[in-house]
Specification:
208 residues; alpha+beta; 4 helices; 11 strands; globular
Length: 208
């Protein structure tokens, strides 16, 4: 497979695994990717949220082949990213536990992809993914010369067609505790995303 497309290849593998395991839950095991380099921290964060919003219910890391006395000596940003992702999952467990994927749509004009999942009747979780990135499998000097680079985007608008069961609270980032500006036309909600690095989460809580 083309190393520059390995994130898309991983997304396809995740979806295939979820469908094969259904109705049982799936666990994602990240690619160790240790030939010229390890997978980088920013790549891991992106793929972890991509997997969670596709419906996986856990992550099992596979780094036992590293030097056990210093497993992240060659990739310090990866160890930091794993801890951060684990902490975020714990914080959002009430949302992620019952989350069911609904759809994933690419917006070619804005060069983003939006993943939508329903957390029972608690609300809707959106993952906005920046598709303007480059990567490859070349050596990265133990993380000091990253191969993954995303071009920041600004002034994005994400449209959500609201299902009949939800009366949405103002959209917010559930990790940053920040709200997004929005406007509404009937059952269509337009959410303004002021800036985007790799990914952003949007949570639409269902109001009683």
């Amino acid at each position: 497979p083309d190393p520059a497309r390995f994130i898309e290849n991983e997304e396809s593998v995740i979806q295939t695994a979820i469908e094969a395991a259904a109705p049982r839950p799936s666990v994602w095991i990240p690619e160790r990717f240790k030939r010229n380099r390890h997978v980088e921290g920013r790549e891991l964060r992106l793929m972890a949220w991509m997997a969670l919003c596709q419906g996986v219910k856990g992550i099992r890391y596979h780094y036992w082949m590293n030097d056990m006395s210093d497993p992240f000596g060659e990739c310090p940003d990866l160890g930091e990213a794993m801890q951060a992702v684990n902490g975020d999952i714990q914080r959002l467990e009430p949302i992620l536990g019952p989350l069911l994927p609904v759809q994933a749509q690419a917006d070619r004009r804005q060069q983003i992809k939006v993943y939508e999942g329903w957390s029972g009747d608690r609300g809707i979780l959106l993952l906005v993914r920046n598709m303007r990135y480059v990567t490859d499998n070349r050596a990265n000097n133990n993380g000091r010369a990253p191969r993954f680079r995303a071009t920041p985007a600004a002034g994005l608008s994400v449209a959500v067609d609201l299902p009949p069961w939800i009366t949405p609270a103002p959209p917010c980032d559930p990790l940053a505790n920040a709200t997004y500006a929005c406007s509404r036309e009937g059952r269509r909600l337009l959410i303004e995303v002021p800036e985007l690095q790799e990914t952003r989460l949007i949570w639409l809580a269902n109001q009683p």
